[in-house]
Amino acid sequence: MALTQDEVLAGIRDIVVEVAGIDGALVSLEKKFADDLDVDSLSMVEVIVAAEEKFSVKIPDDEVTKMATVADAVNFIVAHS
Amino acid sequence: MKIQNTQPSQNTRILSVGAYRPSRVVPNSEIVDAIESTDEWIQQRTGIKTRHFAGEDESLIDMAFAASKIAIARAGLTSEDIDTVIFSTITYPFQAPSAATELITRLGNTKAAAFDINAACAGFSYGVGIASDLVRNHTSKYVLVIGGEKLSDFTSPTDRATAFIFADGAGAVVIGPSDEVGISATTWGADADNRDAIMMTPSWLDFKKGATVDKIGWPDISQEGQRVFRWAVYEVAQVGKKAIASAGIKPSDLAAFIPHQANERIIDSLAKSMELPDGIVIARDIQTTGNTSAASIPLAMDRVLAENPQLSGKLALLIGFGAGLVFSSQVVVLP
Question: Is B9 helix (H, G, I), strand (E, B) or coil?
């Protein structure tokens, strides 16, 4: 069964809190990983590796580089789950 | 008539370790201008504060010789006792003969079996595995395994992906016979689909065809940092878990974790993924040594033992991983 946007957002929020150590309330769809959430390029890799495991999806490197906002990541996972 | 093993297989261990760090300490402040970076950025991304660069007249062999002399003396041996020398490096500037044969001339023992291995940042662990098996099967008795690199000769100071990472140094161990098992079976392999993630190009043949360094550059190391990071945090943890299982122990039996010093954030991620116990000593030599490829594990081992002498005789997990991509891991009893 396909995951909903809310389900994926909740999962991504947990991962970003774990990786970047920030307040989960800050993690919303319009936020930019690098500028708003203190997720640098290496932390982004950790987020993606954790998300792949959590949602059983494969996220190619060239897709990762396009994921500027939380919505970019959530929408990719929803579309491919 | 069938040939036979005339002697039972021999247990092995690391008898000693020696390290050499070049005297020139290079802080991030000396690196940042050429790559438009900052000390804070480098520390945050890699954990590196300072590293050592060899002088122009200080060769890879000079560093390896210094580390080897210490390791041989600490083993209570002399150069003549060493019958095999395995030199792991990717920065010896001659195609042949090997770095190992230049080293044995310096050691005054020109008759030892001597060869190089090219397994980049996994090279030291590859060497430990090979040496242990040579002693186990009585091909050799005392094997000197060196990891040495002068990466400053093969790193562009203006490459924003590598200039702040790589550095120089050499470490050596002597591996020999033991009453107890001191080196586990090696878990090793490659992931050559990612062969182009870390490269030293162009080829020497391009220069033979007339190209110049001005036109095509020098075969400096290049690295796709994020791709390697992703591979390391995901795949390499599995390698360590297999090595622990292969040694017949549990993570909680380990006293130290001495991985290749690629990036402190990889080290942290590996420790977390492998669920290493609280209180285990984790080598963080990278902070003041940088990434010295094949040299990083013996350098880190030397520092761990200098700072924690009580760990002598305790178990440590070694993991090397790097260009190839290749990986190797074993559990050892610390010398």
Answer: coil
- Enzyme catalytic residues of A: 40
Task: Please tell me whether residue B216 adopts helix, strand or coil conformation.
Answer: helix
In a shared domain, residues B225 and B128? no
B226 and A46 in contact by Cβ < 8 A? Answer: no
CB contact under 8 A, B230 and A41: no
Pull the structure tokens for residue B109: 């023992």
Token pair recorded at residue B190: 């490659």
Question: Strand, coil or helix: what is A62?
Answer: helix
Structural domain total, chain B: 2
User: What pLDDT, in 10s, does the model give residues B50-81?
Assistant: 999 999 999 999 999 999 999 999 999 999 99
Residues B201 and B319 in one domain: yes
The reply to whether B45 and B168 lie within a common domain is yes
Q: What is the CATH number of the domain that holds B82?
A: 3.40.47.10
Q: How far apart are CA A15 and CA A61, in angstroms?
A: 18
Looking at the predicted complex, does its ipTM rise above 0.85?
no
Judgement on whether residues B214 and B118 belong to the same structural domain of the protein? no
pTM exceeds 0.90, yes or no: yes
Q: How many Å apart are CA B40 and CA B49, to the nearest integer?
A: 9
Q: Which of B330, B298, B294 is nearest to B315 (CA)?
A: B330
What does the block give as tokens for B243? 């090595």
- Residue with token string 């579309």: A79
Active-site annotation holds for B308:
no
Distance CA B200, CA B159 (A): 13
